Amino acid sequence: MFTLSVATVLAGAVLAGAGALGTALWSASPAAAIDLAKGRTDLPDIVLGDTNGNDFAVPTKDIVMEGGKSYRLNITSNGGKEYKFMAPEFFRNIWINQIVVDHLEIHTYGAPHHLEFDDAGTISVEFVPVRTGTFKWWIDGLEEKGMFGTLTVK
Fold first, then answer.
1. What is the crossing angle of helices 6-16 and 19-26, to 10°?
2. Do residues 151 and 37 make contact, with C-beta atoms less than 8 angstroms apart?
3. Theoretical Cys-Cys bridge with 126: which of 20, 91, 97, 112, CB 3.0 to 4.6 Å?
4. Is the pLDDT of residue 9 over 50?
């Protein structure tokens, strides 16, 4: 009986959009399979609020990345407010390897609805984008204060 792992199917879906390179990698033997979660690139951090009392500061709003590559995105709250980080379309179009909070790993079978900060801290999302596009992110209820941006996958 022939079975495929979730990782193999996912790798095929990611590489299918990669043209000739994707075809070459997909048709390679299992021994030559690649681990998409290794060799990740750290993206610029999204920092919510600053340490000078501006709870609505967001120095980095727009981030660009490439599909099929592994990334880590750190989202940090400086603790001035309760922040609900929303990026539903983005979350639905990435494969999440893990979400890390205080060195504790969360492994999901699906996209999270949102990431919420009640206090200061960092949530790291380790992922591989599987679909190109420009995806909006925002802090629920604070968009009018300038707390929004885009995550673009090329």
1. 150
2. no
3. 97
4. no
